[in-house]
Amino acid sequence: MIKINDLFFKPFISEEDLINRVNQMARAINEDYKGKSLVILAVLNGSFMFMSDICKGITLPMEVSFVKLASYSGTQSTGNVRELVGLDTDLEGKDVLIVEDIVDTGKSMSYLLDLVGSSNPASLEIASLFLKPNALKENIRIRYTGFEIPDLFVIGYGLDYKGQGRNLRQLYQKTEF
């Protein structure tokens, strides 16, 4: 068990399981996009570890770009999405893969899909390491999902609580003790 700020967390998904699943996802992407070039659009801050590891496994020609959205306050989604770092890459006619750490309500992803879709990409898909199906409120399709998890608050492997815990090598879930 670990303590981050004022909350306690216990191990949930091991580093080995995370890396194995990310490598499986990269292999599927390589197969699905064979002969194509990709634009990886990573959603900061939480996706940075996942994006780095999945890009190491993708053998296709690719560009990498970043956007930063905010919708959380503490451990809860606010339901409002703010764009903190905007899209700065021309996506028209390109195959775009959004790389996200976690999709819970889907509001941020729905916002981003509308934003990127308005750029007229050739294709637009999502790779999310974690999905909380019981929290999902938007009708979105995620082509590559690493793990479906319960509606728990999790940290580690890029995800944080009040700015802390992103550097943890495995995933932890909030616990009372």
TrEMBL record:
It catalyses: IMP + diphosphate = hypoxanthine + 5-phospho-alpha-D-ribose 1-diphosphate; GMP + diphosphate = guanine + 5-phospho-alpha-D-ribose 1-diphosphate. Coiled coil: none annotated. Its cofactor is Mg(2+). Residues 19-162 form the Phosphoribosyltransferase domain. NCBIfam families: HGPRTase. Belongs to the purine/pyrimidine phosphoribosyltransferase family. This is Hypoxanthine phosphoribosyltransferase. The gene is hpt.
